Amino acid sequence: MMDKGFVREMKEETDHTEKLVVVRNDIRGWDKEGNPRLRPPQISGGADGIFYRDSRQPFLIADQTAITLSTTDLNLFPAVLSLLPANYWWAGKTIKLTLYGKTTSDGTAGNVVFGAGIGAANPPTNINKSTAVAGTVSKTGFSLRAEAMFTCRTTGTTGTCMAMGKVETDPAGLLASTLQPAFIPQSLATAITLDTTLATQSPTLTMNRSGAGVWTATTQMLFVEALN
Questions:
Q1: Does residue 81 sit in helix, strand or coil?
Q2: Quick one: which of 176, 208, 102 has its CA closest to 145?
Q3: pTM of the entire structure?
Q4: 77-111: pLDDT as tens digits
């Protein structure tokens, strides 16, 4: 009878030479002769590595100050909310931003442009942008969702990063259904500059509008995730 206390047991078959390795974790019971009944074989492989999808702090618990849009690109939230430390990036490292908020437009017609960039300034120097799309006038507090991916391609003071994303709104809100999603950029995406040695680099989402009216955007939820 096999000793159940053994972690491993080697058994020689009588009719041919074969070694059977029995691991305690594979044992699901014992038959009446005292031999182990093994679990079905598990699928090999497992995780590709320690590349967890991990949310970064801080987490928003209140609406951010409404941004009054202008003809200049403006960050949709304070840069400190997505600030990353120096030498954080490595080639292939990806950060995802997901933003939920609301927009309000007055009766003055205008176009809007959305962007995804990285930097310390408001707006950052390096931004990929959507094409200009017509905003719908006289809309109050309609929901908006924006997301962007930032993948480092090269590191150092002259490092590079791909920044791409999209923006959607309620069809009855800022963007008509025929104009969305608005992709960032619409076409011909190229890498932007990213100095990975600095501790002042914040991935961000931006927005601008043409026209003289008062249009606003408010960030209400923001998720900053490291995807690997």
A1: helix
A2: 102
A3: 0.79
A4: 999 999 999 999 999 999 999 999 999 999 999 99
Strands (E), the chain: 10-12, 19-21, 27-30, 36-38, 54-56, 67-68, 74-75, 94-105, 111-119, 126-129, 133-134, 139-154, 159-169, 182-184, 192-194, 202-209, 216-226
User: What's 190's DSSP letter?
Assistant: -
- What number is the average pLDDT over the span 103-127? 95
pLDDT of residue 51: 82
What does the DSSP 8-state code read for residue 148? E
Tokens of 79: 């840069």
- pLDDT for the residue numbered 198: 97
Please tell me the number of Cα atoms within 13 Å of 21 on its side-chain side: 3
In contact, 209 and 40? CB cutoff 8 Å:
no
- CA-nearest of 174, 164, 168, 8 to 105 is 174
